[in-house]
Design brief:
single chain; six-stranded parallel beta sheet; 42% helix; globular
Length: 664
Amino acid sequence: MSFKDQILEGIPNTLPQPKPYDPKINHAPKRKAILSPEEEKLALRNALRYFDKKHHSTLLPEFKEELDKYGRIYMYRLRPDYKMYARPIDEYPAKSKQAAAIMLMIQNNLDYAVAQHPHELITYGGNGAVFSNWAQYRLTMKYLAEMNDEQTLVMYSGHPMGLFPSHKEAPRVVVTNGMMIPNYSKPDDWEKFNALGVTQYGQMTAGSYMYIGPQGIVHGTTITVLNGFRKINKSPKGHIFVTSGLGGMSGAQPKAGNIAGCITVCAEVNPKITQIRLDQGWIDEKITDLDELVARVQTAQSNKETISIAYLGNVVEVWEKFDEANIHIDLGSDQTSLHNPWAGGYYPVGLSFEDANEMMANNPDLFKTKVQESLRRHATAINKHTEKGTYFFDYGNAFLLEASRAGADIMSKNPTIGREFKYPSYVQDIMGPMCFDYGFGPFRWVCASGKPEDLAKTDAIACEVLEEIMKNSPEEIQQQMADNIQWIKGAQENKLVVGSQARILYADAEGRMKIAQAFNDAIAKGHIGYVILGRDHHDVSGTDSPYRETSNIYDGSRFTSDMAIHNVIGDSFRGATWVSIHNGGGVGWGEVINGGFGMVLDGTKKASTRLKQMLFWDVNNGISRRSWARNEGAVFAIKRAMETEPNLKVTLPNTVDDDLLENI
């Protein structure tokens, strides 16, 4: 069967042959057994409902074996035979070009070069899934191939509920992931309900089809590293950044370190993903011995090299060894998936990778104990370095949160509202006040033609637009503009593309709208093919996350999620092609609500209207909330936005004199 025929077939009437387990692929770890015998039967009933009864007797023992062996029913047999990658948009069998664009993005998320655990449909973060099983994938792709521009596909946590009548200006797809009743949003609830097949963890851009490989976070990481060095008044040249994690999103760190110009040491325990990053050129060297690592770093310091080094081992050992060797760490962080600490997001020191995976599945209580012991030891090692002047920040991966729950010494001696920990979130000190408050966030696009030359043209268009805007930009955002122009000029030479022909840069509402309009004009003239716009949920107004995106909100509202919900609702009726709202992305199940969108530019006047309406709202919703929290940069930004748009009228805060409150 051709690729198009397989898409249109959906769930096949004749079952394909079972697929052998491929040990060369990076697989998800076995999930712990959490279902009762009756719940196991329910999980099997839930899985079999995708198939005609004639197949149940064949599939039942197979699905039972998967549940027992892996803790989930992935339906490996249904994995397609064709290669998984983002094809040019015209190669998809679709009645709607908007639907074809979504098919392209789904396949990009599952591309072997992009996805962390492709056979388990997990894109990044250890559990960030596009779908829970291969039946959901097949059925979704069939629906997208069949849909017209007056239908909307409804996605319930990976499950395609179906096509419903709507209208041409409505989103083509509406996605929810993990939207639990609040009292059922603890980590073990995810394990249970995901094993039952009724919900999933969509991470941020996995279950919303907008992941573009590690490039998606490289720019923000580069900005973070650059501004981290600015905070400590040091040039990156010859200075050290120590962190951990090379899977998925965290794989961006060494590339960002190279772009910033520092010495990056990034520890990773998984040999497969370490080798992948080396082969992809995202790290320069791999070292497996701590003494060799020390010697190599000392040489790099002496020569003031720009280099990224992966240490295949546990980061706790790196912190301890560098203390012993008296190597000064200038910047320190961690980007292991601590939103998922008990199921492969964080590996405890003192255990091999293989032994940790075995314990995780078969002795989860002991594994949890080992993780918490490791977090306490990890924090102790970091504290020794910070006492010597290291600037350490939480990278939004729930490191401080989980370390605090483990009883580690990371709490502030003088806590204030929003500053409970010794160390700041990077959003509190860097991204929040410098970027999000002013409306700058991760604007991204994908060239639907799949042509590298189209990406090069869009890079040039974006650069020209930014340079023109910068001529009249206020002083408050000149640094942000300069950093972005420098980034986009170096984007091609830094070889950031993994998977789709995609790009990211940090832009405010003005920049996003003007770049998007320029793209739409170029499409109308036939200079480039369709462009798919999107962003990370990690943005100005997409996410309510008290320990990350909204950690620099100090009016008490950082634990609310009104902003993220309004963001998605507002995007949906202002022209988004698809919208998504998730629980859990980035920092953990029950710890965050985040929303995203995708928008297809086709060169039409309608696309021009949609992009202006939606992108303006998508950014200024968040700025207005940050302004109401009395963030000075946001007050400046929303006042400026009201001056340019007469239909925008936002409630501004009145400040209270500190002296007045002191006297009550």
